[in-house]
Amino acid sequence: MRNKRMFMLMIGFILFIAIIGFSLSDRKELTWPEKFLKDTSGYVQQWFYKPAGSIAGFFEDLGKLKEVYEENERLRLLAASYARDKVEYNFVKKQNEELQRALNFTEQQKQMYNYNYLIAQVISVSNDANNRTMNINLGSNNGIKPNMAVTTVDGLVGLVSSVTPFTSAITPITELSEESPTFGSIAATIEGREKDSFGILSSYNKETGRLVMTRIAETDKMEIGDTVITSGLGGVYPRGLRVGTVETKQVGDFGLTYTASVKLFTSFDHLTEVFVVQPPVTEEQSK
User: Fold this and answer.
1) What is the DSSP letter of 175?
2) Structure letter (DSSP) for residue 197
3) What are the residue boundaries of the structural domains of the chain, listed by start?
4) Is the C-alpha dihedral spanning 74, 76, 80, 86 positive or negative?
5) Where are the alpha helices (DSSP H) in the chain?
6) Which residues contact 213 (CB under 8 A, 6 or more apart)?
7) pLDDT tens digits, residue range 50-95?
8) How far apart, in whole angstroms, are the C-alpha atoms of residue 87 and residue 149?
9) Is the CATH number of domain 114-281 3.30.300.20?
10) pTM to 2 decimals?
11) Could you please report the per-residue DSSP string of 118-144?
């Protein structure tokens, strides 16, 4: 019975609203009951609309948050990829620069003196105080012979002392000594003044870490800072190999000549790659 009354009340309310709607279509002004009803319904609606809007906005923000998270993940992967590529790029760049330096060096020297340069890797270094040698991975099968000069991009390293089919031993220039039976003196000159300057690299001073250059003429215009190179005299060291810079110059023992100390260009710490200088073969040698 009560349900029937509630049903009838709802039907009446709906008809009442419909009548008001039809009556509004022909009138510009609302009666005060109509205004009261409209305001009441609007006030009630806002309490449903605001939460609904907030809930909808909440789910919309969740959707955007997911997009932001996915975008951040993509950016993280991109940053990681960039970091990896940057490391690889720096490695390749450094390697390329080293190879370019080596190539420019060999091409320049080839144009000057027509030597052939064989690139070799240092595979071991002796710690024996009486036998300071280093071994490279090229031997007689590669055309290496004893007494061939060995250098780097920076400067002279030493001389090939012995050879096997696949390896060679190098005596470094730091073993240069007038008393050495296997490592004689080196005829040298000044780069740019080859015809006007001359001296002999006779020994290496282990205390100062410098080469000693002797027999410098009194009239020689050698100056501190000049670049010392091999002169080619003596037939062992090809001419034009860079050795170091003149660091000091002083009068010799008898006052007739000068001596100088030469700072090496080459650093022997962690030496990994060298060039074996292969002079061109003459017709007499080929016979």
Assistant:
1) G
2) -
3) 34-113, 114-281
4) positive
5) 2-24, 32-113, 283-286
6) 188, 199, 200, 201, 202, 228, 246, 259, 260, 261, 262
7) 554 455 555 565 566 667 777 777 777 777 666 667 767 777 777 7
8) 36
9) no
10) 0.65
11) EEEEEEEE---TT---EEES--GGGT-
